[in-house]
Design brief:
single chain, mainly alpha
Length: 207
Protein backbone atom coordinates (compact mmCIF):
# COMPACT_ATOMS: atom_id res chain seq x y z
CA UNK A 1 0.00 0.00 0.00
CA UNK A 2 2.81 2.38 0.94
CA UNK A 3 4.72 1.55 -2.25
CA UNK A 4 1.68 2.07 -4.48
CA UNK A 5 1.00 5.40 -2.80
CA UNK A 6 4.63 6.42 -3.26
CA UNK A 7 4.89 5.52 -6.95
CA UNK A 8 1.59 7.26 -7.58
CA UNK A 9 2.80 10.53 -6.08
CA UNK A 10 3.01 13.39 -8.63
CA UNK A 11 6.64 14.08 -7.73
CA UNK A 12 7.62 10.48 -8.37
CA UNK A 13 5.83 10.52 -11.72
CA UNK A 14 7.57 13.77 -12.61
CA UNK A 15 10.95 12.29 -11.68
CA UNK A 16 10.13 9.17 -13.68
CA UNK A 17 9.28 11.23 -16.76
CA UNK A 18 12.50 13.20 -16.36
CA UNK A 19 14.55 9.99 -16.10
CA UNK A 20 12.85 8.57 -19.20
CA UNK A 21 13.56 11.77 -21.12
CA UNK A 22 17.17 11.69 -19.97
CA UNK A 23 17.62 8.09 -21.11
CA UNK A 24 15.97 8.86 -24.44
CA UNK A 25 18.43 11.73 -24.92
CA UNK A 26 21.51 9.54 -24.35
CA UNK A 27 21.94 8.48 -28.02
CA UNK A 28 21.94 12.11 -29.15
CA UNK A 29 24.44 13.01 -26.43
CA UNK A 30 26.73 10.20 -27.59
CA UNK A 31 26.49 11.42 -31.19
CA UNK A 32 27.21 15.03 -30.25
CA UNK A 33 30.11 14.06 -27.96
CA UNK A 34 31.50 11.75 -30.65
CA UNK A 35 31.42 14.54 -33.21
CA UNK A 36 33.07 16.95 -30.79
CA UNK A 37 35.78 14.44 -29.88
CA UNK A 38 36.15 13.26 -33.50
CA UNK A 39 35.89 9.68 -32.27
CA UNK A 40 33.30 8.30 -34.69
CA UNK A 41 35.78 6.39 -36.81
CA UNK A 42 36.85 6.74 -40.44
CA UNK A 43 33.29 7.43 -41.67
CA UNK A 44 31.64 9.73 -39.12
CA UNK A 45 28.68 10.48 -41.40
CA UNK A 46 27.81 6.78 -41.57
CA UNK A 47 28.25 6.40 -37.81
CA UNK A 48 25.98 9.37 -37.08
CA UNK A 49 23.31 8.13 -39.47
CA UNK A 50 23.32 4.59 -38.08
CA UNK A 51 23.27 5.76 -34.45
CA UNK A 52 20.29 8.05 -35.01
CA UNK A 53 18.35 5.40 -36.94
CA UNK A 54 18.99 2.72 -34.33
CA UNK A 55 17.87 5.09 -31.56
CA UNK A 56 14.61 5.76 -33.42
CA UNK A 57 14.02 2.04 -33.92
CA UNK A 58 14.72 1.20 -30.27
CA UNK A 59 12.39 3.93 -29.05
CA UNK A 60 9.55 2.72 -31.27
CA UNK A 61 9.95 -0.70 -29.67
CA UNK A 62 10.03 0.97 -26.24
CA UNK A 63 6.68 2.65 -26.91
CA UNK A 64 5.18 -0.75 -27.73
CA UNK A 65 6.38 -2.01 -24.35
CA UNK A 66 4.45 0.58 -22.34
CA UNK A 67 0.95 -0.96 -22.52
CA UNK A 68 2.13 -4.50 -21.65
CA UNK A 69 4.16 -3.11 -18.75
CA UNK A 70 1.11 -1.23 -17.51
CA UNK A 71 -1.08 -4.33 -17.70
CA UNK A 72 1.50 -6.63 -16.12
CA UNK A 73 2.48 -4.29 -13.28
CA UNK A 74 -0.81 -2.45 -12.80
CA UNK A 75 1.05 0.87 -12.71
CA UNK A 76 -0.31 3.56 -15.00
CA UNK A 77 2.96 5.50 -14.89
CA UNK A 78 4.23 3.59 -17.93
CA UNK A 79 1.54 5.19 -20.08
CA UNK A 80 2.60 8.64 -18.87
CA UNK A 81 5.82 8.38 -20.86
CA UNK A 82 4.51 6.55 -23.95
CA UNK A 83 3.71 9.71 -25.92
CA UNK A 84 7.05 11.26 -25.01
CA UNK A 85 8.96 8.18 -26.14
CA UNK A 86 7.02 8.18 -29.39
CA UNK A 87 7.94 11.80 -30.06
CA UNK A 88 11.57 11.05 -29.26
CA UNK A 89 11.40 8.17 -31.75
CA UNK A 90 10.07 10.49 -34.45
CA UNK A 91 12.71 13.10 -33.60
CA UNK A 92 15.52 10.57 -34.04
CA UNK A 93 13.91 9.19 -37.21
CA UNK A 94 13.78 12.69 -38.69
CA UNK A 95 17.43 13.31 -37.80
CA UNK A 96 18.29 9.91 -39.27
CA UNK A 97 16.64 10.80 -42.58
CA UNK A 98 18.36 14.19 -42.71
CA UNK A 99 21.74 12.66 -41.87
CA UNK A 100 21.25 9.97 -44.50
CA UNK A 101 20.47 12.57 -47.14
CA UNK A 102 23.36 14.79 -46.09
CA UNK A 103 26.13 12.26 -45.52
CA UNK A 104 25.25 9.21 -47.62
CA UNK A 105 22.61 9.61 -50.28
CA UNK A 106 22.92 13.24 -51.25
CA UNK A 107 20.15 15.61 -52.24
CA UNK A 108 20.20 15.11 -56.02
CA UNK A 109 18.31 12.57 -58.12
CA UNK A 110 16.57 11.10 -55.08
CA UNK A 111 13.99 9.08 -57.01
CA UNK A 112 16.57 7.17 -59.05
CA UNK A 113 18.51 6.27 -55.93
CA UNK A 114 15.37 5.19 -54.08
CA UNK A 115 14.37 2.76 -56.79
CA UNK A 116 17.86 1.21 -56.87
CA UNK A 117 18.00 0.57 -53.11
CA UNK A 118 14.89 -1.24 -51.81
CA UNK A 119 15.95 -0.90 -48.16
CA UNK A 120 15.65 2.88 -48.55
CA UNK A 121 12.04 2.45 -49.69
CA UNK A 122 11.30 0.42 -46.56
CA UNK A 123 12.91 3.06 -44.35
CA UNK A 124 11.03 5.86 -46.10
CA UNK A 125 7.70 4.05 -45.70
CA UNK A 126 8.31 3.55 -42.00
CA UNK A 127 9.19 7.22 -41.56
CA UNK A 128 6.12 8.33 -43.50
CA UNK A 129 3.91 6.25 -41.21
CA UNK A 130 5.44 7.95 -38.17
CA UNK A 131 4.60 11.44 -39.42
CA UNK A 132 0.82 11.33 -38.80
CA UNK A 133 1.46 9.73 -35.42
CA UNK A 134 3.70 12.61 -34.35
CA UNK A 135 1.37 15.26 -35.77
CA UNK A 136 -1.63 13.85 -33.90
CA UNK A 137 0.06 13.00 -30.61
CA UNK A 138 -1.18 16.03 -28.66
CA UNK A 139 -4.19 15.96 -26.34
CA UNK A 140 -5.91 18.52 -28.55
CA UNK A 141 -5.58 16.29 -31.62
CA UNK A 142 -6.87 13.33 -29.64
CA UNK A 143 -10.01 15.31 -28.85
CA UNK A 144 -10.44 16.49 -32.43
CA UNK A 145 -10.05 13.03 -33.92
CA UNK A 146 -12.19 11.37 -31.27
CA UNK A 147 -12.79 7.70 -32.05
CA UNK A 148 -10.58 7.95 -35.14
CA UNK A 149 -7.45 8.59 -33.07
CA UNK A 150 -6.78 5.02 -31.95
CA UNK A 151 -7.33 3.47 -35.42
CA UNK A 152 -4.86 5.99 -36.85
CA UNK A 153 -2.24 5.28 -34.22
CA UNK A 154 -2.28 1.58 -35.06
CA UNK A 155 0.12 2.66 -37.80
CA UNK A 156 2.85 2.09 -35.24
CA UNK A 157 2.56 -1.67 -35.83
CA UNK A 158 3.34 -1.70 -39.57
CA UNK A 159 5.83 1.13 -38.98
CA UNK A 160 7.96 -0.93 -36.60
CA UNK A 161 7.75 -4.01 -38.84
CA UNK A 162 8.81 -2.09 -41.94
CA UNK A 163 11.60 -0.42 -39.95
CA UNK A 164 12.85 -3.88 -38.98
CA UNK A 165 12.77 -4.94 -42.63
CA UNK A 166 14.71 -1.77 -43.46
CA UNK A 167 17.51 -2.81 -41.11
CA UNK A 168 17.57 -6.50 -42.01
CA UNK A 169 17.63 -5.67 -45.72
CA UNK A 170 20.80 -3.63 -45.44
CA UNK A 171 22.57 -5.93 -43.00
CA UNK A 172 25.72 -7.32 -44.56
CA UNK A 173 26.77 -10.21 -42.34
CA UNK A 174 26.00 -9.77 -38.64
CA UNK A 175 22.21 -9.92 -38.33
CA UNK A 176 22.19 -11.22 -34.75
CA UNK A 177 21.13 -7.89 -33.27
CA UNK A 178 18.27 -7.53 -35.73
CA UNK A 179 17.14 -11.10 -35.00
CA UNK A 180 16.92 -10.12 -31.33
CA UNK A 181 14.87 -7.02 -32.15
CA UNK A 182 12.69 -9.06 -34.49
CA UNK A 183 11.91 -11.56 -31.74
CA UNK A 184 11.11 -8.73 -29.33
CA UNK A 185 8.73 -7.18 -31.86
CA UNK A 186 7.14 -10.57 -32.55
CA UNK A 187 6.47 -11.11 -28.83
CA UNK A 188 5.01 -7.62 -28.40
CA UNK A 189 2.74 -8.00 -31.42
CA UNK A 190 1.66 -11.50 -30.32
CA UNK A 191 0.72 -10.13 -26.91
CA UNK A 192 -1.24 -7.33 -28.53
CA UNK A 193 -2.96 -9.83 -30.84
CA UNK A 194 -3.97 -11.94 -27.85
CA UNK A 195 -5.48 -8.94 -26.08
CA UNK A 196 -7.24 -7.20 -28.97
CA UNK A 197 -7.43 -9.63 -31.88
CA UNK A 198 -6.58 -8.71 -35.44
CA UNK A 199 -8.91 -5.68 -35.51
CA UNK A 200 -6.93 -4.14 -32.70
CA UNK A 201 -3.80 -4.06 -34.86
CA UNK A 202 -5.03 -3.04 -38.31
CA UNK A 203 -4.63 0.71 -38.98
CA UNK A 204 -7.79 2.75 -39.60
CA UNK A 205 -10.01 -0.10 -38.38
CA UNK A 206 -11.94 0.46 -35.18
CA UNK A 207 -11.88 -2.22 -32.56
Amino acid sequence: MLISRWIGHPRFLQAFRFLAALLASVPLLFVVSGIAAQSLGPDPGQAVTESLGLAAFQLIIATLCMTPLKRWTGWAGWLRIRRMLGLFAFFYAMLHVLAFLQFILGWTDLWATFTKRPYIIAGALSFLMLIPLALTSSTGMMRRLGKSWKPLHKLVYPAVLVAWVHYVWQARSDVGEMVFYGLAILVLLAVRWKWTGSRGMIPFVRG
